[in-house]
C-alpha cells in the first residue's frame, strides 16, 4: 500500500518545532522574573486611595478637554489615568485562572469607572458648555479599527511590563484612551443623550475587553499559567477566540457603515458633477 507524501511523518519538522520551543523556554521565558512581574501587576491593579484620586483627576481633565474640544487636554487625561492597571491585572488573572485576583481587579475597575462617570456627569451639569464637540462625537461610534488599536497597544503594554520596558507605557496609555469614553458616558447622562452615552460605553467596553484578553494572550506566551492543564488551556483559548469573533462582527459592520457614509458625498459628486446641469437659453 502506497502512503501519500502528505501522510508521511515529518521527523525533521517535528524536531525543529521541539528545538524552537526549547530555545524559547530557555532563552526568552527563562529570563522573565515571573514572580516580580506578578507582584507588580497585583500591587497596582487593586483599589487604593491613590487609584481613586488619580481616577477622579483624570476624569475631570478628560471631560474638560472634551467640552473644550482640546486634544492636548484629553491626551493629558489619558496619561494620568490609572485604569489600565486593573485591566492588565484582570488579563493576567485570567491567564493564571486566579479568580480571586480577577475579582479584585474587576472590583477596582468597576468602582473607578462608576466614580469617573458620576464625577464627569456632575461637571457637565454645572458647565455652561454642553454642546457636543468633535472630540465627544468621535468617541460615540466604535468600529473594528478601535479594536485593532486596543489590541496592538495592549500587546505592546503587556510586553513592556513583562520585559521591564516602562517607557512604552506612556504611548500605550495614549493609544488605548480609556478615560475619554467614560467621560463621554458621563456627558451623555448629564445631557440625557442616550445614543452618545451608549456609543461611548460600547467604545470603553471594546477597549477593556480587548486589552484584558490581549494581556492574557501575551502573559501565556511568556510562560504565565504554565501550571494549567491542557483542558484548561483549551477552554481559555476557545473563550478568547469566541469573544474576539463576537466583538469583531458588529465592529466590522460599524466600520463598513462609516466607510459608506464617508464615500456617499463623493459618489453623489460623481453622479451629479457641479455645473453639469445647465439652464436652457
UniProtKB/TrEMBL annotation:
Domain of life: Bacteria
InterPro entries, per the entry: DUF389
Membrane-crossing residue ranges in chain numbering: 109-131, 143-162, 169-190, 196-222, 234-253
Keywords from the UniProt entry: Membrane, Transmembrane, Transmembrane helix
Protein name: Hydrophobic protein (TIGR00271 family)
Amino acid at each position: 500500500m502506497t502512503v501519500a507524501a502528505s501522510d508521511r511523518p515529518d521527523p525533521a519538522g517535528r524536531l525543529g518545532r521541539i528545538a524552537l520551543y526549547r530555545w524559547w523556554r530557555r532563552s526568552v521565558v527563562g529570563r522573565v522574573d515571573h514572580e516580580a512581574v506578578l507582584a507588580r501587576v497585583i500591587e497596582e491593579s487593586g483599589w487604593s486611595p491613590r487609584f481613586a484620586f488619580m481616577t477622579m483627576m483624570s476624569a475631570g481633565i478628560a471631560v474638560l478637554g472634551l467640552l473644550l474640544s482640546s486634544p492636548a487636554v484629553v491626551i493629558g487625561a489619558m496619561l494620568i489615568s490609572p485604569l489600565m492597571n486593573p485591566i492588565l491585572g484582570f488579563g493576567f488573572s485570567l491567564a493564571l485562572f486566579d479568580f480571586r485576583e480577577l475579582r479584585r481587579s474587576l472590583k477596582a475597575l468597576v468602582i473607578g469607572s462608576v466614580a469617573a462617570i458620576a464625577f464627569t456627569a456632575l461637571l457637565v451639569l454645572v458647565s455652561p458648555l454642553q454642546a457636543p464637540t468633535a472630540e465627544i462625537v468621535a468617541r460615540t461610534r466604535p468600529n473594528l479599527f478601535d479594536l485593532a488599536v486596543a489590541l496592538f497597544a495592549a500587546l505592546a503594554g503587556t510586553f513592556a511590563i513583562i520585559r521591564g520596558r516602562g517607557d512604552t507605557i506612556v504611548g500605550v496609555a495614549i493609544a488605548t484612551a480609556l478615560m475619554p469614553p467614560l467621560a463621554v458616558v458621563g456627558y451623555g447622562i448629564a445631557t440625557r443623550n442616550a445614543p452618545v452615552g451608549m456609543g461611548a460605553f460600547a467604545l470603553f467596553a471594546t477597549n477593556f475587553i480587548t486589552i484584558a484578553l490581549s494581556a492574557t494572550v501575551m502573559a501565556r506566551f511568556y510562560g504565565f499559567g504554565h501550571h494549567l492543564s491542557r483542558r484548561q488551556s483549551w477552554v481559555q483559548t476557545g473563550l478568547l477566540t469566541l469573544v474576539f469573533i463576537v466583538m469583531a462582527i458588529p465592529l466590522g459592520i460599524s466600520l463598513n457603515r462609516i466607510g459608506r457614509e464617508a464615500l456617499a458625498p463623493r459618489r453623489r459628486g460623481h453622479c451629479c458633477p457641479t455645473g453639469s446641469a445647465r439652464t436652457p437659453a
